[in-house]
Amino acid sequence: MIHFMNKNVELFKWQQILWNIFNKINPQIISLGTNSFFHFGTVGELLEHFFDENSAFKKKFLPNIGEIGNLANCLIEKPENISQKSFLEWCRINSNCTIEDNCILSGVVYEEKTPIYIKSGMCICTFPIGEEEEGKGGNEELNYVTVIFHIEDDLKRKTSKEENLKWFGHSIKSLKGEDNSLWNCPLFSFYSTASKSFLKTIERINFGLNDSTPLFSIAQVLEKANVNKMLKERKKLLEEKIV
Prior knowledge:
Layout: H1 9-22, H2 43-51, H3 56-61, E1 71-72, E2 75-76, E3 87-89, E4 92-93, E5 97-99, E6 104-106, E7 109-110, E8 116-118, E9 122-129, E10 143-150, E11 165-167, E12 170-172, E13 188-191, H4 194-207, E14 215-216, H5 218-224, H6 227-239
Parallel strand pairs: 1-3, 2-4, 3-6, 4-7, 5-8, 6-9
Antiparallel strand pairs: 9-10, 10-13, 11-12, 13-14
């Protein structure tokens, strides 16, 4: 059964079209048991499946659970600063960070004294890039990049050369020689710590894109991400007291 969401008119239109098609057939459904696969869809749909008590996901897989915990493998100094309608995984955040509704954070670290406020609808991931020690697989020094988009951004949508890209209200000139999309747009700087990376990227959203450091696109960040370092940091979190 398709779960309709009235919040997004365009999404609702296509859900209605699909419903009208598939509602006329008589499909045979085979239960896959404990290893079932569920496609959450868009980021917005994922959040609704997690936190809407009437979602198809909760009705099918979690019928006897009232609420899904919104902090997975995290160390949060002040959980009351985190909206119950946002989802965090593998994060380490102190009491100076407040997060509104409908956000998703992964791998984020915040240990700074500067108060920081995360507005509703942000999708935020921090990645280690480069090598932790010289001579092991490359000569890039270990740094961190925080990637931030709004949950309703269409990252792969290509714009014309005459149309500027938009990132949290900032206008970005069209790219040369590449697909003109947010996916390929160099927006994100690297910093020496994950915490500083998070803070500085939020400041870029609030105060503008003026930055002399090299910039990476999300596509480049994913190519350069140090997966082994990510796994080590996750293991360290698991070894500590988990919220």
